[in-house]
Write a structure and sequence with these properties.
transcription regulation; Env_Response_Regulators; Crp/Fnr family transcriptional regulator; transcription; four-stranded antiparallel β-sheet; alpha+beta; Jelly Rolls; DNA binding
Length: 223
């Protein structure tokens, strides 16, 4: 049973979202009542690729890493989610399975809604549907931008381009530096850059020697 305080927080969260802020009050009440609140510890899996798509998650606080694999077990997709994200977006209207894995890379708080309820809200509210389409368009734009930044045939340049993209997308001002507020593994940088972990390690060391970045405890800071 959700406490009245949590219920109020859930409703405020939805009202602040462009997707749901203009919902009729009866729909907002129904959506809030169907929502569960959960705290997830860093390192915990939220759902696995191929599992039945039963719930949709709203990221209230924290950061999530999502990955997808092919039949051979090779990573084919990797991205990071920040607060206010809705996931998964892919399959949210008619998907039957989760298309990727999701893992908490910080302690986080999520709101969980049955996918059937989300679909009902989206389908029966035009403004909500338009807002979701716009949200998906922004995701496509960010993904396309990252791909465009990593088209160089030079692996070192691709690593630098990925770092620049991560700085622009996730970097937060911390004193005199901009820091990505969650850990990123070197092997993740390798996947994003389309190169080997060894190459990424070499480039990161060079950038540290040039006093352009710091990589400490898997946290990247841009000087």
């Amino acid at each position: 049973m959700i406490s009245p305080t949590i219920q109020t927080e859930i409703k405020k969260f939805y009202m602040a979202q462009p997707d749901f802020g203009n919902l009729p009050m009866q729909d907002l009440d129904r959506l809030s009542e169907a929502t569960r609140f959960k705290r997830v510890h860093r390192g915990q899996w939220i759902f696995d690729q191929g599992d039945e798509l039963s719930d949709v998650y709203f990221l209230k606080e924290g950061h999530v890493k999502v990955t997808a694999m092919n039949a051979e077990g090779d990573l084919t997709y990797l991205s990071f989610l920040t607060p206010q994200a809705i996931f998964p977006l892919r399959g949210i209207l008619n998907g039957e399975e989760y298309c990727y894995n999701s893992i908490a890379i910080t302690d986080l708080e999520v709101y969980i809604v049955p996918v059937t309820e989300i679909r009902r809200v989206i389908i029966h509210n035009y403004a909500c549907l338009v807002s979701f389409i716009q949200r998906m368009e922004r995701l496509i734009e960010r993904t396309t931008s990252l791909i465009e930044q990593t088209t160089s045939s030079n692996a070192t340049q691709r690593v630098c381009q990925v770092l620049s993209g991560l700085k622009a997308e996730y970097g937060q001002k911390r004193g005199t530096v901009r820091q990505i507020p969650f850990q990123i593994l070197l092997k993740d940088l390798a996947v994003l850059s389309g190169t080997t972990t060894e190459t990424v390690t070499t480039v990161v060391k060079q950038l540290q020697q040039q006093n352009k970045i710091r990589y400490n405890r898997k946290l990247i800071s841009f000087i």
